[in-house]
Specification:
By secondary structure, this protein is an alpha/beta fold. 34% of the residues lie in helices and 11% in strands. The chain folds into 2 domains: 117 residues, 3-Layer(aba) Sandwich (Rossmann fold), CATH 3.40.50; 101 residues, Dihydrodipicolinate Reductase, domain 2 (2-Layer Sandwich), CATH 3.30.360.
């Protein structure tokens, strides 16, 4: 793509319509950017979700959406295990990429994507949205301006009660789908990114204690979409 993209000309396609996909669509529209296409696992689901979200084009797979010449940027809101193949396919198709974290399931995969995006001269961004919160922006400015002096110790936490109970379940708990880092990759990555964003420092070495709070969880018999508000009953297991 040699034409310079602007907010008025850029066309975006979104893959995935679970919890976070519609949030991407809302954010894009609030910024005046056209969402032209939506991709899902099946054509039927894509058509249903596209009608629900007011998106003109529906695709039964990401790969079919990548063939649309009007789409310049792809937002990936798919499960973790699909991030590497989806991002790679989008970059090879000449599309810029905004991917949900993590970028890939391991550093070998992510390094390949970083290298490929540089070779193709394409944006390959990971959506660490907490950077954009006003408090985070202010803290970064204070560090850059020297208002806090030299930094020696930084402390923080990421508190979330989702998946609190033994009966709570989500695909992120399955290593083949969500990766082996579990909470570290899911919410811990936000904390680590925020630390580097605010301070300008980079993580060089890690020492950590891990704990599995629920060694055994009760998995529902059928898939449950994230944050749908469904109250599970004994009949669901």
């Amino acid at each position: 793509m040699t034409e310079k993209l602007t907010k008025q000309s850029i066309g975006v396609g979104v893959a995935g319509t679970g919890f976070i996909g519609p949030a991407h669509i809302e954010a894009l529209r609030r910024n005046g950017i056209k969402v032209l296409g939506l991709a899902e696992a099946t054509k039927e689901k894509a058509v249903e979700k596209a009608a629900e979200l007011g998106i003109p084009r529906a695709f039964g797979s990401l790969y079919k959406m990548l063939a649309d010449p009007d789409i310049d940027v792809v937002h990936l809101a798919t499960p973790n295990y699909l991030h590497h193949p989806h991002t790679k396919a989008a970059l090879l198709a000449g599309k810029h990429v905004v991917c949900e974290k993590p970028l890939a399931m391991n550093t070998t995969e992510s390094a390949e994507l970083v290298k490929l995006s540089k070779e193709k001269n394409l944006v390959n961004a990971v959506n660490f949205n907490i950077r954009m919160y006003p408090l985070a922006q202010q803290a970064r400015s204070m560090v850059q301006n020297g208002d806090l002096g030299d930094l020696f110790i930084l402390q923080g936490s990421y508190l979330q009660d989702w998946l609190l109970f033994q009966t709570d379940w989500n695909w992120r708990l399955e290593p083949d789908l969500g990766g082996t880092l579990r909470a570290v990759g899911d919410i811990g990555s936000h904390w680590l990114d925020l630390l580097t964003f605010i301070t300008g420092l980079h993580v060089e070495e890690v020492y950590a204690d891990f704990k599995t709070f629920h060694p055994i969880r009760k998995k529902p018999a059928k898939p449950v979409e994230t944050y749908t508000g469904k109250i599970l009953t004994p009949e669901d297991y």
